[in-house]
Structures
1.
Amino acid sequence: MRNLHPEDARRELPHNPALQRISYNITIFNIQTLQQLSNTAVEYDQVIKICKGLFIKKTRDYGTAWRILRIESITDQIFIKAQRIRTLEEKKISKVDEDITGEYIGIVNYCVIALMLLDSGPETPTELPIEFVSALFDKKVNETRELMFAKNHDYGEAWRDMRISSITDLILMKLLRVKQIEDNKGQTLASEGVIANYQDMLNYAVFALIKLDVK
């Protein structure tokens, strides 16, 4: 089926002005939605490029020392960063030289670290080659990115109308869920596991960075 311009779609309908107006509006909405999804893909990739750039620089400096951490420690690190963001949002004053943007970047990277840790076994060495880590980073981000597009399809990019403070709260809520799951030794009755929650937090943090106009 060939692609139609909105005016083409209107002309090919029976001569019914009301029906033509409805079809025209639906076509315009679909075009705008596709354009917005395309913009999101570009913005998402720009944010990830910045986050990965910092992650790789730190990996060159420190190696993969994060491999020694247990997954609960990663959860707590993300919680500290999200809680600091909330404090800065409420108090508007920072006494430490790192702003909200830096904390959100940290959340993105810690979420990726969590996903990489969950993909590692006891046989995985502590020190990993930087090329391997870079490829694994991309793999986990791409999986999470696909989840983002699936949810955007269902929810219509509702996050664009959210306040950044609400995104912070959602991350904190997800963290409390993850901590409860961890305390229950990973057992859940009706909810998503920790991987899905880390992916959601990663995507929320990217959305916040897009809204903060990080490029």
2.
Amino acid sequence: MGYAHRTLAVGAENVMVLPSTNIGSIAQVIQLSVAPVFLLAGVGATLNVLVGRLVRIVERARITEAQIKENPEQSSQELVERLEVLATRAKLISRAITLSVVCAVLVPIVVVSLFVSVLLGVNLEVPIAVVFISAMLSLATGLVYFLREVFVATAALGFRLAQTGQTEAQRLSRLLKNS
């Protein structure tokens, strides 16, 4: 897109050339920035869910650790392995949170870059595309980690424990090996 320029006299000899913008180009940038802003709202909602899950995992881990400390000689392998499952879940959900935050940081960079591109008359199409693609890849990868955490959480449930003939400790141990 071509940019017209206006000159601004600065002192007797210095002349600064500024890009000329009109309200139409600013309105167009605002329209272009609406989708990323909605994306940012969705990422915020996702982060709320992820942090809620992390809080519940940490609470369960603290309860399990307290149970182990109360009766160290009676601590069963089941409690230790339950704690290991919670640690695995916490690691996965933490990665999902980190990647979602990276996305939440990159999206405003896209919006700001759109405005800078128009206001300064600089062609930032490629950098904007790269940052937006990075944001989408970060979000997608974070959602994959979230899905893995959900799989680990549901696999740790003992719904079919009686049918398999395994103890809780055996099932948790198998779960950790497969996650």
3.
Amino acid sequence: MHIEIVEFPSEDPDSSDPEPSDKTNFKETDYFSLVEFTDGEVSLSFLEKCWLDIFNTIGTDELSSIIDVAINSSSHPVKLPDKKITLAIVATDNTHMCQLNHQFRNKPLPTNILSFPDGSIDQKQDEYHLGDIFLGFETINKEAVAQDIPIKNHAMHLIVHGILHLLGYEHEYEHQAQIMEHKEAAILDILNIPDPYLL
């Protein structure tokens, strides 16, 4: 599933597409932002404003680091081509997550994260679209409170989890889950985030 981000109109209708962010925080008017990482860029869409505070605690530099470490930590089931890598993160709410979960997984319930691998190549732009990640605010916030962990850490863990899904990892079976959990914990350790599976 490759999503086309619908942007909020800018003050200047003739302005060009937004440039990758060179700041460390997001403003309340930032409904859409591009953040560069070593091998490409991630588009961020804030469909639920509560996410702005959380992503401001992460910051653009740390978000870039999360993606870099997840993508470059080792080889993956999905072999990445030698092209610019793009992915999308959509920070939304439970209502939207419930709709997506029902539509694509036949589960009419909200969930914390959904990942949609893509793998399409834009020959003109020489880009490889890894896929799209959706984050549900209310569920993630509730989980963080229940586990007594900072929501920043939980969100970063789920971003890593989502990227690994885009890279071909699954957890349908126990042996798959063990591989994926070990990979997540190793990546989070590099980022100084405690192993979420030991909490």
4.
Amino acid sequence: MSLITVALRESGEEMGHGEARERKQLCARRSCGRGAPFVFVAVLLALALTGLVRPSPMLAAEPLQRLEIVSANGPHVFEVELARSPAEREKGLMFRRYMPKNRGMLFDFNPPEPATMWMENTYIPLDMLFIRADGTVARIESNTEPLSRRVIAAGEPVLGVLELNGGVCDELGIKAGDRVFHPMFKAR
């Protein structure tokens, strides 16, 4: 029983036809408000179970892949994310403020092309390794400047670009001509 009904009964007044209708409408609005979140969640759950709603591909991260670089002083193993689609390549490592030392991002430009990169909206310095289709490093751009719009060109057609934390190549002795091993590259 609502407070309005109780107050009217206690005062001795009878509820008229219009008042009864208002009370029913008020109660209907209140019950709709309480059940709406439940109904919304139930509908989303039903759609998800039937497969009509799928998570966004940007949210469903691909597992990290193993990549090895063999330099003059031995092998160096990294766990990399892949950027294959134009949207993934465009976003790259933008907006990230940290990346573990043994991680990186591998950009797939299949078929090989004279790739160009930049650092817009990228907050961490990077080493960019431009990699030929056979897995050899064509060139390295070390310690790129965060947030720069300067275009960094491969200088020749490459199949991939590997971005690592800035300074890693110098620290590990990775140089142009070293070999990258990953399923994307085929030894020729």
